[in-house]
């Protein structure tokens, strides 16, 4: 009999473990976009994102970022610290793309003169709307201290990842983070992968992320493999 | 021959005067909603909003708020200081209504546990999107100092107007402000009226603002007249 997940999201399943402080995250191949309107599968995405996320958490850990990742359990599973996820998505942007390009009327690919940080209300029913510090306070989504820590940590992560990726000829366009509380401490949670970041090849501008799925650009699995290869040197074989 | 306005907006026309530091604002009866999709006329709105705005600017002036209003010229015209309007709309909210109620999924009329301040990009083509401090900086819409001053001033205005209106049995639900530069100084500009605020009768909850037009509630002109009467005691006769 297969174990029931505690929670099944759009990209991952979360399982309890014997230890209440630890959870098992299982990465699926399911892909969704536009708030669940577009649905599909990206072959091996779960395996690739499990590896890529593990790599990024370890990299960030080396730079002093506190995160939930403990260790990799299998191809599609990682053990993480149990978090009470704050319903706030933190987005950092270096280049205008996606919803920001639309919002401010800028062409996709235009460099932002200053790094842009955004908060979104993690609420599928509402379509994850953009919110600001006042909304977070009024809704009681996070304390002012937590908002400050999330903003500072997100900008620090931008510096760490941006510098690392540049060496691999990957441009970090933007990315989304989730944070949560573990025994009162705010930790980086969820995943960091081509599902939650935009990566463009520095030389060709080729998109190596979920936009290939969102916009039907083809070679979706190949893009995720290429990211893993650039990051770790691992040649992924199906 | 009628003089050509420098600029004609959705609710007002702006005329030059002999003095480059002063402009004439002419209040029209035109009413628009939903970013110009709904159009109509509210009889005498121009006259009423000219009076109501003049009243509010004078009230705010007495409380130390720096604004563009100089004096009333005619039924529909006021003389103001020339501003370079910053393309940022500043919204203050006390009760969830309109787009905020939609954004955060709250019922209209629910009291916000904390005052909410929002910035919108004043850009009709983009539908005046919600933006945050980072967007303002990246777009170069205002300096950090100006953002701070606008926020502080808007919250102070909320206190002043809220207290005054409460005495008149009007609940200040939310309102929109525009600021601009006059000789390097940041002044409150535009208008303060039932077009740009939500006022609800404190006892009955009746809406006395542009929502009567937006939502086809009837008695639109009467609501504007009632606001003028409550504020100033003036019984407006057509
Ligand atoms: N360490 C953790 N503890 C508890 N929940 C977590 C942790 N890391 C991520 N989650 C949550 O797991 C859920 C499943 O992930 P995902 O499939 O991406 O969900 P979603 O459909 O909400 O994007 C998400 O709600 C995410 O916030
Ligand atoms: N003191 C001022 N100096 C210059 N422009 C002003 C001043 N006060 C308001 N304005 C601008 O006058 C324009 C006309 O007003 P309105 O009809 O409300 O325009 P809109 O259609 O942009 O809402 C607006 O762009 C507003 O920002
Ligand atoms: Mg997710
Ligand atoms: Mg206007």
UniProtKB/TrEMBL annotation, chains A, B:
Q: Which UniProt keywords apply?
A: ATP-binding, Ligase, Nucleotide-binding, Purine biosynthesis
User: Which GO biological process categories is it annotated with?
Assistant: 'de novo' IMP biosynthetic process; cobalamin biosynthetic process
Q: In which pathway does it act?
A: Purine metabolism; IMP biosynthesis via de novo pathway; 5-amino-1-(5-phospho-D-ribosyl)imidazole-4-carboxamide from 5-amino-1-(5-phospho-D-ribosyl)imidazole-4-carboxylate: step 1/2
- Gene3D superfamilies under this entry? ATP-grasp fold, B domain (3.30.470.20), Phosphorylase Kinase, domain 1 (3.30.200.20)
Q: Give the matching PROSITE patterns.
A: SAICAR_SYNTHETASE_1, SAICAR_SYNTHETASE_2
Q: Which domain of life is it from?
A: Bacteria
State its Enzyme Commission number(s).
6.3.2.6
Q: Which reaction does it catalyse?
A: 5-amino-1-(5-phospho-D-ribosyl)imidazole-4-carboxylate + L-aspartate + ATP = (2S)-2-[5-amino-1-(5-phospho-beta-D-ribosyl)imidazole-4-carboxamido]succinate + ADP + phosphate + 2 H(+)
Query: What InterPro entries does this protein map onto?
Result: SAICAR_synt/ADE2_N, SAICAR_synt_PurC, SAICAR_synth, SAICAR_synthetase, SAICAR_synthetase_CS
Q: What is this protein called?
A: Phosphoribosylaminoimidazole-succinocarboxamide synthase
Organism equals Thermosinus carboxydivorans Nor1
Q: Which gene encodes it?
A: purC
């Amino acid at each position: 009999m297969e174990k029931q997940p505690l929670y099944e999201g759009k990209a991952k399943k979360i399982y309890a473990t014997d230890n209440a402080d630890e959870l098992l995250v299982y990465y699926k191949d399911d892909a969704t976009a536009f708030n669940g309107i577009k649905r599909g599968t990206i072959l091996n995405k779960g395996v690739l994102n499990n590896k890529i996320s593990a790599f990024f958490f370890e990299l960030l850990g080396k730079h002093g970022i506190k995160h939930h990742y403990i260790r990799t359990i299998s191809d599609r599973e990682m053990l993480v610290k149990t978090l009470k996820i704050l319903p706030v998505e933190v987005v950092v942007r270096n280049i205008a793309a996606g919803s920001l390009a639309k919002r401010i009327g800028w062409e996709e690919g235009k460099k932002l003169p200053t790094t842009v940080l955004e908060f979104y209300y993690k609420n599928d029913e509402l379509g994850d709307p953009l919110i600001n510090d006042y909304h977070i306070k009024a809704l009681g989504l996070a304390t002012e201290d937590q908002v400050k820590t999330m903003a500072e940590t997100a900008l620090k992560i931008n510096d760490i990842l941006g510098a690392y990726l540049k060496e691999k000829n990957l441009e970090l366009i933007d990315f989304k983070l989730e944070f949560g509380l573990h025994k009162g401490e705010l930790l980086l949670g969820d995943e960091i992968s081509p599902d939650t970041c935009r990566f463009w090849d520095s030389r060709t501008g080729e998109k190596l992320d979920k936009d290939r799925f969102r916009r039907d650009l083809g070679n979706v699995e190949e893009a995720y493999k290429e990211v893993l290869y650039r990051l770790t040197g691992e040649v992924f074989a199906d």
